[in-house]
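Lab notebook, design round three. We kept the backbone fixed and only want residue identities now. Task for the bench partner: fill in a sequence for the structure below.
Input structure tokens:
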């Protein structure tokens, strides 16, 4: 079982940037595909970005392409989410998630695909 701990959230003005980190422990990091999701009160958790084990493949929520970048450092057991050009509608709790998979080049975009989750980090974008 893998444990995930997010960090890097905070309060930022619209147009600003944040980089979220998610550190993993407990199992070989390379065995997991990873994803970032976000949630606001009263709404379902939604997909933000995902990345394969190999780092070669990634995907994004359509509305976020060009502003957000997911990456992973398999040597540091950490996945990142670089967020640029932040907007008030990006406000929410951001969660990282992990799925053990035998497939090196597959990413997963559904909440239901991921059995392991971090505790979340709050991102607030002021207008």
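Proposed sequence:
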């Amino acid at each position: 079982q893998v444990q995930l701990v997010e960090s890097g959230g905070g309060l930022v003005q619209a147009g600003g940037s944040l980089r979220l980190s998610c550190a993993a422990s407990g199992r070989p990091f390379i065995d997991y595909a990873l994803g970032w999701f976000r949630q606001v009160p009263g709404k379902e958790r939604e997909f933000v970005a995902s990345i394969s084990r190999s780092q070669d493949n990634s995907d994004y929520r359509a509305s976020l392409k060009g502003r957000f970048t997911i990456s992973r450092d398999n040597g540091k057991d950490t996945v990142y989410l670089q967020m640029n050009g932040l907007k008030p509608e990006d406000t929410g709790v951001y969660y990282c998630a992990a799925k053990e998979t035998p497939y090196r080049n597959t990413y997963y975009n559904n909440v239901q695909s991921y059995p392991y989750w971090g505790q979340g980090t709050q991102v607030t974008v002021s207008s």
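Keep this in mind before ordering anything: The chain is about 0% helix and 50% strand.
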